[in-house]
Design goal:
This protein is mainly α. The protein is 78% helix and 0% strand. The longest helix has 44 residues, at 10-53. The relative contact order is 0.14.
Length: 233
Amino acid sequence: MPAPVAPPDSSSSTTATKAAGLAGLLTAEAIAGGMLFVLAFGLFFYLTRVVFREHSQVFDNWGFAQMDALRAAHPWLTPWVLRLTFFGSVRFFVPASLLAPYLLYRRGYGRYAVELLISMGGGFILNELLKFWFHRDRPTTALIYQYGLSFPSGHAMMSMAYYGCLAWLAVQHGGRWGWAILLVIWALLIGCSRMYLHVHYPTDVVAGFAAGTAWLLLLRAGVELFWKQKKSL
């Protein structure tokens, strides 16, 4: 008589199913991230052509006009915008970029702490290099004094690097999509505050968002590749 066939191991089947699902999720994540990176990089490249080759001021004039109309209609907003813009400044990001990783490390999230440090450190260096390369002066209509160059906006780029990284970590650890959306909206508002105060052209701000998004996606891809290789070893 033929030997009885043993039933398949349910635990092995479950593990294989989970592995296949994870592989599919990572593939979908990689595809979505790649597409978003191309869009962000393409937008940044397009803005450099508009500003430095075509010398078009259509979008900048339109953006300033919208902010001027908003300020004229609601003058009480200005003090709040001044408070808001602080959360994208160097005075805020220097301590925040050290404190947040420290708290993450103390709570056992050492990997997340390193990711946030790299996001901020690399984003700052990249922003300074881009400003030096394009060397665009700031608007002469600024409501407050601001030193440095204009393109791309450091507030917009670094806010996307910091709050965008925190948003990703919120999704990655617990699927907190609500917090992630709020953090991204907060970053966008900080960038818009620079247009409101006329310390950056609207093209500077949009370019900052695009560059910050592209940098964050590039960092995420590098981190995922690093941890995959480390696990395989």
